[in-house]
User: What shape does this take?
Amino acid sequence: MLTIDSLSFAYRGRHSRKVLDRFSLTLEPGNICGLLGPNGAGKSTLFYLTAGLLTPASGSIDYNGFTPRRRDTAFMSDIFLVPEEIALPSMTLRKFVAVNSPFYPRWSAKAMNRYLDMFELTPDIHFDHLSMGQRKKAFMSFALACNTGLVLMDEPANGIDIPGKSAFRRAVVESMTDDRTIIISTHQVHDIDRIIDHVVVMDNERVRLNAPISEIASRLKFGFTTDNAQAQSALVSVPVPGGFNIIEPYGDCDTETEVDLETLFLLTRNNPELINRLFNK
Amino acid sequence: MNNFIITFRKYLADNRKQLILWLALALGGIIFLGAVHAFFRVDNDTSQGIYMVFAPLLMCCFASVTFTNMKRPAGRIAELTLPTTTFNRFAVRWVMAIPATLLLFIAGAWLTELLRMTLWPVFNDTTCPGSLDIFLFTEKTSAITVYFLFLLLTLSFFFFGAIAWPRLSFLKSAIVQWAISTIIGVISVTSIFLFFKDHHIGPLSGNDIDFELYSTLSITFLSVLIVGLWIMAWLRVRESEVTDHLL
Assistant: This one.
């Protein structure tokens, strides 16, 4: 379980401002969590803090009894960070796996081959001959095959082609186990909206929404309308070609609708009080 | 598998191309020096002296790039998210930059001399005088010890510089070392003139008590400095791992 309690952090420098301020979050294992937030909200910083790369100004992070900033080897081998920009050495994927997999006790060669198949890659590819998207696919295959308890993915689908995005979703879902947590930070909400079962929205240094998708679907009704009046009476409406994407209060007789992350994100920003009332008791 | 061994294996694999390049440079230098010295009939002492001035330059360059992958955020993240201890990450680089480089230095000196002697008859129609031996430029054991300690100190300083100044570390280390050496030199010379007018300090006469005292003091002082630099480098690595900024 990942527990973040009153975490505050600011990058040093002349124009330093708080990136996270008394930020608290608890995530149970067995979830694929979507981390959403505007640019500069601190999503990557949160990942770096969770991975033990930065020291919090105050507050604490606890992952299964480990304090990330102490950087215990046992902790490091149970967490995998896939950063937005990946640095890969000049070697084949096979060699990369040979020298890196011994660090991860639960690494699975079988799973690696399965993910590589999904991404249509082979172990003999050389990183120097790959595009950015292909390098990312190879690295993500390795990350998921390490079977770490916590996987942090920062904009994982950036630079990946359309078949690759679909393969990415399949790989993430297939890699899930009851004792694993995968957190995906992205602005491309459509890349993850079908696979996540929990959503966290960050804004202004805090958590604005932290709820399972099932709970959101049971409290808000997502839809599309061409009716201007209905759009205006909705909790939030987003003009799209041909009409509006809307969110309305969930009625007793309504059937659950599919959560539209983009519209939900806008509602969270426009009406934080309502979100707070509905989800953050 | 032992965490140090797998960290070492990973370092060698990740830096394979650069290590091959450094070895090729070293080998090229050895062949060049061996051939040139044979061609110009350079004697053993001079040949070894030239080697002992130029080889350390390459060694210092190598020592100053041991942490080069830490100077960009992506490389730093890749390095710091690796499940290994800070000490292992430091120790692997220390082994490569200090003992391995010193061994290569000694092997290189031997190889240069072997080449000089082998190529001598090819260029000069005469056999090379003397036998195969390295570091013959002085008969004093303590003098060669002091030389090696100076070499180790320089190397250690560039290794420390690689951690302290991830960007332009060779240049910055060279400038700082030159400045420190100048200050220490000025202070030492001034002190000698002020306080030790009646004594000669240095290898002037073999059986002199001053010489033995000087050697012992130098060896002790240099050894302490070297170990101190390694400890400082280790502390700097540990301190720089988790900070309030990524670079």
